[in-house]
Structure formats: C-alpha cells, structure tokens
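Justification of resources, computational component.

The compute hours requested in this renewal are based largely on the per-chain cost of generating structure records like the one below. Each record pairs the submitted sequence with a full structure-token output. That output is archived, and it is also reused by downstream analysis tasks.
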Amino acid sequence: MRKILIAMSHALTQAQILDLTDNGYEAVVSKEFLKSGCNRLAPDLTNKELRSIAFELVKEAQSLDCEFIAMTGEPALTFHIWTIALKNSIGLLQSTTKRDTIEKVQDDGSVVKTQIFKHVQWREIW
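The structure output for this chain reads:
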C-alpha cells in the first residue's frame, strides 16, 4: 500500500476511502493539519506563515513515509503545499468530484441553491 497524507478541510467520504483502498493507497490523517486545519486558518496569516504550515506538512509526510499528500481548501496554502511537496519528490492526489446544483424558487422569490458533490476519482499529480 502506498501511503497518502490526508490534509483536507473535511473528513473523507466513504466513496473516497473505498476508492483509495481499491487503488492501493493507505490514508494517514495529518496530525499537524488537524491542529491548524484549513477551516481554521486565520485570514490574516502572512505568506510566510502559510509556507511554514506547508513545510510542516511536508516534513510530516516524509516522517511517515508518505508518497503523496492530498490537500484541498485554502488556495494559497494549497499552492505552497503542492510546490514544496513536488520539490521534495512527494506526489499529490486530488479528489475529483461531479457537482450537481438544484435551485428551488421560494414563495418570496428568493432562490435556495443546493450543491451535491459526488466523488469521481483520485488524480495523481507529479
């Protein structure tokens, strides 16, 4: 099994987990990311602070012998993680989804929009 460090802004869905295991991946949830997770990132973090978080995640992946990192969420942090991981020969996995939107017009004329995300595949990025 090839290890993948999970640093995502949400828990993996059952479909994502099954797809990983069916394709020979072992998911390892990042302890570092749980401390500073994407949903809890302060909007006033500097570029230097985001790079520091990215370096810590890559170090964690290396220490756990992970060949890949799966990261979604805050775009600037994602950029830093991807850049640093690739420079350190760690691949990236991206979960792809199919998105369906349902719009329902309310009695008052407002619109309620519901988005449904369905996992399609994990895409390797080198």
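The mean pLDDT is 89. The first helix runs from residue 14 to 22.
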